[in-house]
């Protein structure tokens, strides 16, 4: 039985209001996941639950999926962030669960989990009437209303909505409701696991009876993941599956202007010889690797333009001076497109690129064209869609030809990435050196022809290699690691943290695996700032989803909130660190790690993955 749904647009929120799945069911599943460590068991728990609720009403799946991934909608749409502050939540818990604010605060100091506190308070609170049980539809719609509340009455409105839900909470519901409001579900459920479980449930729903084979599940998973990388919107992907079937995703769920696709990423390399080995006998192009911000520029058929960041965030208002139509050869024959570019700070007088630090001084919000002091030039390197037609399955040569046919460079504003096709080592070395002189990070080297040159959304592909000049002597690239804990400082560093325990993210398990202790590269001033920033995130013990060795425990544990970009001399197997320990008996750790900067622009789940750490380690073994 297929639903008739208009899949071109994001369906209206009101569709989900009616999802009657009891919220208590979702919460008891969360509770079960929280106490389960095996990933396969978690997938089974989730997919059985999704199968059950999709059978009752397919529309249940969308709000439920969002509750599972702890999001309210696609990342690229505004007003989808919760992350309410603890002050507001403590006040609300105290007012609706019969505790004084001081009691809530004290308890919070002791245990550091507001969800747990709300649950305990709620469960000993006498109630006159048994409240009407919460449904998924109601919770989801209320969460969105809370996230969207704006203006001077917004606090009051938020508190009112939370109170209304809290007073209806029973059992473990208050715990997970509060954690969802904080945007920290903390049950060790990775989004990738939810996607796999969802694929399994959708396939079962489609097939009707019986367990699908592992092969069929893997294929469904791949199709759904591919569709999601092009259209990162669960509503659209799920609705297309329900309406047309999973096998039809590729025909009905294609990238389109107005929805940022997940960008293709590159693998690090440490030497020109490594690049030559990889692309041996094939044509490859080397392009300058500009050091700015990725800008995926969309022109929509209605003439509007949007610029999205690497993480799919809408940054259009940051660049009021840019109008993509100025760079088109013919506005009447090109009505929509998506161009992959890097936005770089530009010195108009001297006609040259400025360092990244200059770009980062530009305001992020409410930017007025007249106030702009730092100019930006877009360096285009790919064309992903033209007049509604996705080009990602064309060769890079074809895409770049079309790019140059339909757009034109405009001095100081829009240029093509500087490129060179050669496999001559000296020429490459010279081009690499020149890129650095021209204020770039090094080179991006890409396959030009054949299927391997297709654009692979969201993949860190071997068909794109990065060659960063600064990292050639280290492991080939910097790593973005999550701060899991800290060590108290001694001597000059007394009163702040003197070192930190860092970890990478295992995308399969949703766990953070420790990979080094770091104490180098910090100024005293920075340590003070970090102390103030991290102290409020301290917990009374490690999170359940931290993988560490008992002999390498920090003095203080934190919730995962911050990434450090870190440089290392090399990687080695370690008896006490755990990165990649599901691949090897031992974990991998960084030797001589050095702090570079805080990565404010990446959410913690975008930390360097365990798989990347293993790749870097293996690439190093291969070279020696
Ligand atoms: P990660 O560390 O996760 O790979 P990152 O944000 O640190 O991500 P890099 O992998 O170092 O980025 O480099 C990829 C980025 O380089 C792209 O996201 C893009 O913004 C930028 N870039 C600059 N020039 C080019 C180019 N010619 N082709 C592709 N990307 C380019």
From TrEMBL:
PROSITE patterns: DNA_LIGASE_A1, DNA_LIGASE_A2, DNA_LIGASE_A3. The keyword Nucleus applies. Residues 369-506 form the ATP-dependent DNA ligase family profile domain. Keywords: ATP-binding, Cell cycle, Cell division, DNA damage, DNA recombination, DNA repair, DNA replication, Ligase, Nucleotide-binding, Nucleus. It is found in: Nucleus. InterPro entries: ATP-dep_DNA_ligase (IPR050191), DNA_ligase_ATP-dep (IPR000977), DNA_ligase_ATP-dep_C (IPR012309), DNA_ligase_ATP-dep_cent (IPR012310), DNA_ligase_ATP-dep_CS (IPR016059), DNA_ligase_ATP-dep_N (IPR012308), DNA_ligase_N_sf (IPR036599), NA-bd_OB-fold (IPR012340). It comes from the Eukaryota. One of its GO terms (molecular function) is DNA binding. Pfam families: DNA_ligase_A_C, DNA_ligase_A_M, DNA_ligase_A_N. Its EC number is 6.5.1.1. Belongs to the ATP-dependent DNA ligase family. PANTHER family: DNA LIGASE 1, DNA LIGASE 1/3 FAMILY MEMBER. This is DNA ligase. It comes from Zygosaccharomyces bailii (strain CLIB 213 / ATCC 58445 / CBS 680 / BCRC 21525 / NBRC 1098 / NCYC 1416 / NRRL Y-2227).
């Amino acid at each position: 039985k297929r639903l008739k749904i208009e899949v071109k647009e994001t369906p209206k929120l009101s569709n989900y209001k009616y999802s009657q799945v009891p919220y208590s069911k979702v919460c008891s599943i969360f509770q079960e996941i929280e106490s389960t460590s095996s990933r396969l068991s978690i997938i089974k728990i989730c997919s059985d639950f999704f199968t059950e609720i999709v059978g009752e009403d397919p529309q249940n799946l969308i709000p439920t999926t969002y509750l599972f991934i702890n999001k309210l909608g696609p990342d690229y749409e505004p007003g989808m962030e919760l992350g309410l502050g603890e002050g507001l939540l403590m006040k609300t818990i105290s007012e609706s669960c019969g505790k004084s604010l001081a009691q809530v605060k004290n308890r919070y100091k002791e245990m550091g989990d507001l969800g747990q506190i709300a649950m305990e308070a709620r469960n000993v609170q006498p109630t006159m009437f048994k409240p009407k049980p919460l449904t998924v539809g109601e919770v989801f719609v209320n969460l969105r209303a809370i996230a969207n509340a704006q203006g001077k009455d917004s606090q009051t409105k938020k508190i009112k909505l939370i109170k209304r839900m809290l007073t209806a909470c029973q059992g473990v519901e208050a715990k997970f409701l509060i954690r969802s409001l904080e945007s920290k579900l903390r049950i060790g459920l990775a989004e990738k696991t939810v996607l796999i479980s969802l694929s399994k449930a959708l396939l079962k729903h489609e097939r009707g009876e019986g367990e699908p084979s592992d092969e069929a599940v893997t294929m469904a998973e791949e199709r759904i993941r591919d569709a999601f990388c092009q259209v990162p919107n669960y509503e659209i992907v799920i609705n297309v599956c329900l309406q047309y079937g999973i096998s039809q995703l590729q025909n009905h769920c294609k990238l389109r202007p107005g929805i940022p696709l997940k960008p293709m990423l590159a693998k690090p390399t440490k030497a020109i010889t490594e690049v030559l080995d990889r692309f041996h006998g094939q044509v490859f192009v080397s392009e300058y690797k500009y050091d700015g911000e990725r800008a995926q520029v969309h022109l929509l058929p209605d003439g509007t333009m949007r610029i999205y960041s690497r993480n799919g965030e809408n940054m259009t208002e940051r660049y009021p001076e840019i109008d993509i139509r100025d760079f088109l050869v013919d506005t009447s024959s090109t009505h929509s497109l998506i161009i992959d570019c890097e936005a770089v700070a530009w010195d108009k007088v001297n006609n040259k690129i400025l360092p990244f630090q200059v770009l980062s001084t530009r305001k992020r919000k409410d930017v007025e064209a007249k106030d702009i002091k730092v100019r930006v030039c877009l360096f285009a390197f790919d064309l992903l869609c033209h007049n509604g037609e996705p080009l990602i399955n064309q060769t890079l040569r074809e895409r770049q030809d079309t790019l140059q046919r339909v757009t034109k460079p405009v001095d100081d504003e829009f240029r093509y990435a500087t490129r060179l096709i050669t496999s001559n080592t000296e020429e490459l070395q010279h081009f690499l050196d020149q890129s650095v002189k021209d204020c770039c990070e090094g080179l991006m080297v890409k396959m030009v022809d054949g299927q391997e040159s297709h654009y692979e959304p969201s993949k860190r592909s071997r068909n794109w290699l990065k060659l960063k000049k600064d990292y050639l002597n280290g492991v080939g690239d910097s790593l973005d690691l999550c701060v899991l804990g800290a060590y108290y400082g001694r001597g000059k560093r007394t009163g702040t943290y003197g070192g930190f325990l860092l970890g990478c993210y295992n995308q399969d398990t949703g766990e953070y695996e420790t990979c080094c202790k770091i104490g180098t590269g910090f100024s005293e001033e920075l340590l003070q700032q970090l102390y103030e920033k991290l102290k409020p995130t301290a917990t009374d013990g490690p999170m359940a989803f931290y993988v560490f060795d008992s002999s390498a425990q920090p003095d203080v544990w934190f919730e995962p909130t911050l990434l450090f970009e870190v440089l290392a001399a090399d990687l080695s197997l370690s008896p006490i660190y755990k990165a990649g320990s599901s691949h090897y008996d031992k974990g991998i750790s960084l030797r001589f790690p050095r702090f570079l900067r805080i990565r404010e622009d990446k959410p913690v789940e975008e930390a360097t993955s365990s798989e990347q750490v293993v790749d870097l380690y293996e690439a190093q073994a291969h070279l020696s």
